[in-house]
Amino acid sequence: MTDQENHELFELVRSKASAEDQAAGVRRHFPASALKDGSAVSAYRGEFVWALESDSRPHLYVDDEPTPPLRELPGNLWVRAGRLRTGTSHAHFYRVNTAILGGRRFDTAAYGDDSYPQDGVPQGELSEELVHESETYRGWQVSYWVYASPGVDPAKPSAVMVWQDGHRFLEREQRSRIMTVVENLEHKRKIPPMVLVLIAPGHIGDFDNSRGYAPRAIGHMRSLLYDTFNDDYNKMVVDEIFPEVNKTYRLRSDGYSRAIGGQSSGGICSLNSAWFRPHAFGRVLSRIGSYASIQWRWGQKNPFGEYPLGRFGDRDPCEPLDGGNIWPFLIRKRDRKNIRIWLEDGSYDLENDHGSWPLQNIQLANSLKMKEYDYFFSFGNAQHSTRYGDAELPEAMTWLWRDYDPMLTHQTFVMDPAEKGKPYYRVRIFNR
Predict the structure, then answer these.
(1) pLDDT for 360-377, tens place per residue?
(2) Angle at alpha carbon of residue 117, lines to 111 and 118, rounded to 5°
């Protein structure tokens, strides 16, 4: 649904319209399946509407707290409308007959003003899908898109930010709304004009882009690119793709003017890239980063045996290889590097055989603090979802690019003095 339709639903549910008209509006707005499984929620800025079809009275919990009773509409519909804080995400679930409905909770982004188009703010330009056949990952092809914000002059070197999972950022009113955010922040002079290089994961074999990019077809390719602890991804991005982008837009070559960001495996990929080449990327935005053992290899049988050895470049996939689980300890043991880092995760993030996402991100934040990195740790009440990071993207981008001066090519990033006096993060067992 569009932003306008979400706003109209909120106004309808709060209006003096008949209960029948309100019920009809709710059913037009939400799929029948969403009304039954508990996922029916709309949000516009801080305006929220929750709706559920249930034979028994449901009890709604928002951010783990019970709300006032829901209002009943004809047809066993239950609704509630309310306002919540923007710039973050909000979680909800239902209890029906004491049990959590479906055992599920849902995260919803509450976007602030900078995530919506503003009057008088010009839009940038997004390229068509481009396809690159990698020399580093022999036989692989990747799709990427190039976005230039309104202030970018193709004849002058511009700041640049790379995003993993670039196919996720192409729709203006979906997910992170990154193009709108960049335009609004640039218009307010909170960030510099910049080029975004939006890179999707790789593909092996014949590539048919006549049907558009199909992320479900990438399989394990994404993890090999993003979770592997080495410099290969930089070789493809910095040494192969950047020269292609430079044919259209001139990119700054200093790490001070370059950032890299991503979510989940794309988050750890961002820190990997800056760690191996801080002179290429000085700013990192990591969201729900997978600092886990996904690509940890200890010499076992090649898990990708259907591909001939050497297909992935010089490194044999069954060689012993460090995984992302080492990051909290690597930061503590190695010399500090000149990187500015925004780190984000949620208390309901993943827990599986690869590791614990919340605990690893908390440990990483403490390690960054111990080594006095210029970092910020945002920890919310969210699952393994980008909705929390999407809603706070304007804040994260403003923080990451704060005090940027286009006349400089270097800055020594130092910890905020206010952070030095704060304690380390500690964990409370709150769900037992």
Answers:
(1) 999 999 999 999 999 999
(2) 110
